[in-house]
Write a structure and sequence with these properties.
The protein is mainly alpha-helical and 362 residues long. It has helices at residues 3-32, 51-67, 90-104, 120-124, 126-130, 135-139, 142-151, 158-172, 186-203, 245-253, 271-284, 288-295, 299-325, 329-357, and strands at residues 38-43, 70-75, 112-115, 178-180, 214-216. The strands form two sheets. A three-stranded parallel β-sheet has the order 1-2-3. The protein has a two-stranded parallel ribbon with strand order 4-5. Strand 2, helix 3 (90-104) and strand 3 (112-115) form a beta-alpha-beta unit. Helix 10 packs antiparallel against helix 13 (299-325), helix 11 packs across helix 12 (288-295) and helix 11 (271-284) packs across helix 13 (299-325). It starts with a helix and ends in a 5-residue tail after the last helix. It binds adenosine-5'-triphosphate and magnesium ion (MG). Adenosine-5'-triphosphate binds next to helix 2.
């Protein structure tokens, strides 16, 4: 490993540790006063949501909603065109995503679900925010670099290069202060915090206008897919929430493991086996170590059977609800339209205040 790689790995590990510690502090604050928080988080409509979404962020959104926190769920449809050039699937993917949310427990009478392309004021914040960051800062973003490589595109579009700034607009347009995300999003969130701080310094030094949002990591901030890399819609390594039980079994049977028969939870040395243990443990609500002990030296095949059973059991009610929602497109569209109306009202106020602070009210 080169010195630079070793240094950046150490930096990434320490920033994740800080985020884990901060997440624990935030959890305590939520318990005491859930009404002090507004959550904004979202997903790209690039295909069906998967187990990485559920355990990385979606289950947390539902839990926060049920604790009384105001939850806004954003469908990042402009982000879908950072690395996809055929938008024909977009309407179906967007409605499918709303159905996935509801099936997982998002309640549209409490949470707001909307697509960011429908909120003009949100998108307009991109311009002042772009002026607050440098090209060099954007070039250092590790997640954008990885996503660019995974996309196999020949060149990076300016939209892909700047999408973390757009994400800052997603979060700040509604003054969200809590963002439940997976680990890949921590660099983006740091940029949002920087933008909030710089905006305040430049335009609102006496009374800071934007607050710096906190991330909230789950117990599975980076769930691996069947090939041992981050589970992603775009990598062909994901188990969709809407997959059938047979498909789930087939995909997980093909998951990468190692030849050691004794099953142990050791994420550093045995990432793939540990990932399966974590997945099974999250479904069963036990610890990964407990699950490892149950399997003992029965090997990977036994581990996989157990995980398949656990995943299918955990997803059964979600899948049932998902099937009920299939074909209810008018209902799903109404949820989106209602969410957009509510989000637009919030965005219009923010944009008017931002213009005022920037001396752009003529
Ligand atoms: P794509 O491959 O199209 O980028 P994706 O699977 O990475 O899709 P996103 O829509 O980019 O999904 O991510 C939405 C949210 O889900 C983010 O908060 C992200 O951190 C979280 N997330 C996605 N994949 C995982 C994963 N494997 N483990 C934990 N969290 C995840
Ligand atoms: Mg992604």
């Amino acid at each position: 490993m080169s010195t630079t790689t070793a240094t950046s790995t150490t930096t990434a590990t320490s920033s994740r540790l800080t985020a884990v510690e901060r997440s624990a502090q935030v959890e305590r604050a939520i318990e005491q006063a859930p009404q002090q928080f507004r959550v904004l988080t979202g997903d790209r409509p690039t295909g069906p949501l998967h187990l990485g979404h559920l355990f990385g962020t979606l289950a947390n959104r539902v839990r926060l909603q049920n604790l009384g926190v105001e939850v806004m769920v954003l469908i990042a449809d402009y982000q879908a065109i950072t690395d996809r050039d055929s938008p024909q699937n977009l309407p179906g993917d967007v409605l499918g995503q709303v159905a996935d949310y509801l099936a997982a427990g998002i309640d549209p009478s409490r949470a707001m679900v909307f697509a960011h392309s429908q909120i003009p004021a949100l998108n307009q914040l991109l311009l002042p925010f772009l002026s607050l960051v440098s090209v060099a800062e954007l070039s250092r973003n590790p997640t954008v670099k990885e996503e660019f490589v995974a996309s196999r595109a020949r060149s990076m579009s300016a939209l892909m290069f700047t999408y973390p700034v757009h994400q800052a607009a997603d979060i700040l347009f509604c003054h969200a202060n809590l963002v439940p995300v997976g680990q890949d999003q921590l660099a983006h969130l740091e940029l949002t915090r920087t933008i909030a701080r710089r905006f305040n310094d430049r335009y609102a030094s006496e009374h800071p206008y934007f607050s710096e949002p906190d991330g909230l990591l789950s117990a599975a901030p980076l769930l691996l897919g069947t090939d041992g890399t981050k589970m992603s819609k775009s990598r062909g390594n994901a188990v969709a929430l809407s997959a059938t039980e047979d498909e789930t079994a087939r995909l997980l049977r093909g998951a990468k493991t190692d030849p050691e028969r004794l099953i142990t939870y050791d994420p550093e040395r045995r990432p793939e086996v540990s990932n399966l243990l974590l997945l099974g443990a999250l479904c069963r609500e036990v610890s990964p170590q407990e699950l490892a002990e149950q399997i003992g030296d029965a090997g990977s095949a036994r581990l996989k059977s157990l995980v398949i059973e656990a995943v299918n059991e955990r997803l059964r009610p979600i899948r049932r609800k998902r099937r009920e929602l299939a074909g209810q497109d008018d209902y799903l569209r109404r949820i989106l339209a209602d969410g957009a109306d509510r989000a637009r009202a919030i965005g219009d106020v923010t944009l008017a205040e931002v213009r005022q602070l920037m001396h752009k009210s003529y």
